[in-house]
Design goal:
Elements (H helix, E strand, L loop, with lengths): L2 H14 L3 H12 L4 H8 L5 H40 L18 H15 L3 E2 L5 E3 H4 L42 E3 L5 H10 L3 E10 L10 E11 L4 H16 L6 E8 L2 E14 L2 E4 L8 E12 L1 H6 L8 E8 H9 L12 H7 L18
The structure holds phenylalanine.
The site of phenylalanine (PHE) has 11 residues, from β9 and β10.
Length: 377
């Protein structure tokens, strides 16, 4: 076979190669160690110089054209393979996403996020404490000694008696003192924990679960509170009232929220103030806003608060002549019910997917002050 016919034959077969495997077989046949083009190259050594002068360039040109043809064909085959893959693996982005169970954000979580957003804007940090608490933090340090009648105000879930074993022992606690463990009855022990751990000044909210042995249409054994605590120099009742007013206006997204402060009693605040908020009857539904004394209006008890009792400041290891504070505690579930018009507290904790679908929030509904903390359920 002449060099020319070998060349044209090779190019023809390479162009006709259908896939990568066939092409590889041709490469071996021509350019492999035993290949026909390689064999031609080997003949150059035995040629006379004159012969090599004429045959050499032809053979080298043959090798080059075969190499080029193989590369060109390989590119074409790869492109065709990719084209075919793209054509077979279609993804229609205009199709709706398949139906999948979708979670929603529970109203309690949503409201807690809203409160964190509102108070963050006022310079409050979020603090937490344990739900399994000892009676020192839950009662004693909050000015409720063993014999104090106020302990009976809470129907407490106690754990079976156990001696102090070093768990969460606080510096202000008598060493070796017996501690009764319980499920915290309010978020107020976080006041103590924060003051003990961080000293003063303090500006925190503490949201979380609390437990009382109580169960009927409006009480569940577990519910949620949010505690607020400010400790600084020269803090007075005016600061408390302004803070509550600002928070409630932002939370209910109404400027006409009117508060009524009533004297009350909590062992850990002095004076203690119960806060009512005015409501208005709108088509048989109580909507918060307006003066509760106006016709068609009324007052609703919303939260407990007061100036932090000197004794509590002392229990927490601070000097009450230097530091004063105010505190408040409010039910998160109740806030959620009032804001989002839900009437059955028990449904909050049933885990019924239909209720969650109806009252839950999208994870994209992040409360922000700029957009209004109220989400569209
Ligand atoms: N801890 C009180 C309760 O659960 C609420 C409260 C908190 C009152 C802080 C005053 C100050 O009822």
């Amino acid at each position: 076979m002449t060099i020319e016919s070998l060349g044209s034959d090779a190019l023809e077969r390479i162009t006709a190669a259908g896939d990568a495997a066939a092409l590889e077989a041709l490469r071996v046949e021509y350019l492999g160690k035993q290949g026909s083009v390689s064999a031609l190259l080997k003949t150059l050594g035995k040629m006379s110089p004159e012969e090599r002068q004429t045959e050499g360039p032809k053979i080298h040109a043959l090798r080059q054209s075969v190499t080029d043809a193989l590369a060109a064909r390989k590119e074409a085959i790869d492109a065709a393979a990719l084209e075919q893959k793209l054509a077979s693996e279609t993804l229609d982005l205009t199709l709706p996403a398949p139906e999948r169970p979708r979670g929603s954000v529970h109203p309690v979580s949503q409201v807690m996020d809203e409160l964190a957003e509102i108070f963050a804007d006022l310079g409050f940090a979020v603090a937490t404490g344990p739900e399994v608490e000892d009676d020192w933090h839950n009662f004693t340090a909050l000015n409720m000694p063993e014999s104090h009648p106020a302990r009976a105000m809470h129907d407490t879930f106690y754990f079976p008696d156990s001696a102090a074993d070093g768990h969460s022992a606080s510096s202000s606690e008598a060493v070796g003192q017996k501690k009764r463990m319980l499920l915290r009855t309010h978020t107020s022990p976080v006041q103590i924990r924060t003051m003990v751990a961080e000293g003063a000044p303090v500006r925190i909210i503490a949201p979380g679960r609390v437990y009382r042995s109580d169960s009927d249409a409006t009480h569940t054994p577990m519910f949620h509170q949010i505690e607020g605590l400010v400790v600084d120099k020269g803090i007075h009742l005016g600061h408390l009232k302004w803070t509550l007013e600002t928070f409630l206006k932002a939370f209910f997204e109404r400027d006409d929220i009117v508060l009524r402060l009533r004297p009350s009693y909590f062992p850990f605040t002095e004076p203690s103030v119960e806060v009512d908020v005015g409501w208005e009857d709108v088509g048989g539904r109580r909507v918060l806003g307006g003066d509760g004394d106006a016709p068609g209006h009324g007052w609703m008890e919303l939260l407990g608060s007061g100036m932090v009792n000197r004794r509590v400041i002392e229990f927490a290891g601070l000097d009450p002549d230097e530091w004063q504070g105010f505190a408040f505690g409010v039910g998160v579930d109740r806030l959620a019910m009032l804001k989002y018009a839900m009437d059955d507290l028990r449904a909050f904790f049933d885990g019924d997917i239909r209720w969650l679908q109806h009252y839950g929030f999208s994870a994209f509904d992040q409360p922000t002050l700029s957009a209004g903390v109220g989400a569209s359920a």
